[in-house]
Amino acid sequence: MITCIEKCLRKGSYSFLFHSLREEEDTVAAAAQLVKERRLKGIIFLGGRMSYPEEELKQVPVPTVLCSVAVEEEAGLGKAASVTIDDEKETYRAISYLIRRGHRRIALIAGHEADTTVARLRRIGYCRALEEAGIPYDSALVGFADPGAEGYTEACGYETARRLIQSKADFSAIFAISDRMALGVYKAIYDAGKSIPKDYSVMGFDGIESVRYIIPPLTTLKQPTEPMARAAVDLLFRQIKGERVCERQLFTASLLEADSVTDRDGSAADREYEHNS
């Protein structure tokens, strides 16, 4: 998304500044300071979380767009322009897909337990899919990252999956809340002397390019990253031109079926790697 945003901005004759923040940093305060230091024309907030965006963004005196920013449900987006997917709904779709394939014991590689951003929304989707299918929630199947570990990484996915496998908990499928974590899950399974999908079906979320080239290719939900990036830049340009923009653009992920998921009875998916909306 960053690459696409930069390309779109340069086409509009704007220079691009990328500023990365640690999880504990105050996003809005950092943005306000950047406006002062760099005389910015506008800001795209990419990822992270805001409790009350309408109030918080009043501190930022330039046009802003929220892209994939998690917002507390009760707070709402107010008048903020935003581009996002419904993380809770999309995860519900993913877990429902695994359930339709016959899996009822589905482990979750869930990120940090204290995470109130995307990880929280994806956990909610996981729980709702189980509940609607009449499957009891089992905390033994939910693997959280160590508090000091960096989230959404291969190492985090590996360590969390390793602990779940060593716990001897009974499960036939693993859903990782990001593809990078799913890559770590792959190694944990193979290090345990198991295989995919014979012993465990594995599914990820995001649709990063590298999951097409691992063995077996990963079944995942792909975010429409380029359309979302272009939409965020378009919303920003409209504001810079003086238009009052407060719309929310909601995008839908695509299911990419591959060979990492098999039916619970053991039959492999007889289909090519494809896009399904």
From the N-terminal CA to the C-terminal CA, the straight-line distance is 20 Å
Secondary-structure-derived class: alpha/beta
Estimated helix fraction: 25-40%
Percent strand equals: 15-25%
Which strand order does the major sheet show?
A: 7-6-8-9-10-12-13
Helix-strand string:
HHEEHEEEHEHEHEHEEHEEE
Mean pLDDT: 90
Task: Determine Rg (CA atoms, Å).
Answer: 20 Å
Detail the poorly predicted runs.
269-277
Major sheet: 7 strands, mixed
Number of helices: 8
Find the count of extended strands (DSSP E, 2+ residues).
Answer: 13
Q: Rough shape?
A: elongated
Descriptive terms for the model:
single chain; 277 residues; alpha/beta; seven-stranded mixed β-sheet; four-stranded parallel β-sheet; 8 helices; elongated; disordered C terminus
Describe the overall structure.
- By secondary structure, this protein is an alpha/beta fold.
- It contains eight helices and 13 strands.
- The protein has a seven-stranded mixed beta sheet with strand order 7-6-8-9-10-12-13, with helices on both faces. Strands 1-3-5-11 form a four-stranded parallel beta sheet, with helices on one face. It has a two-stranded parallel sheet with strand order 2-4.
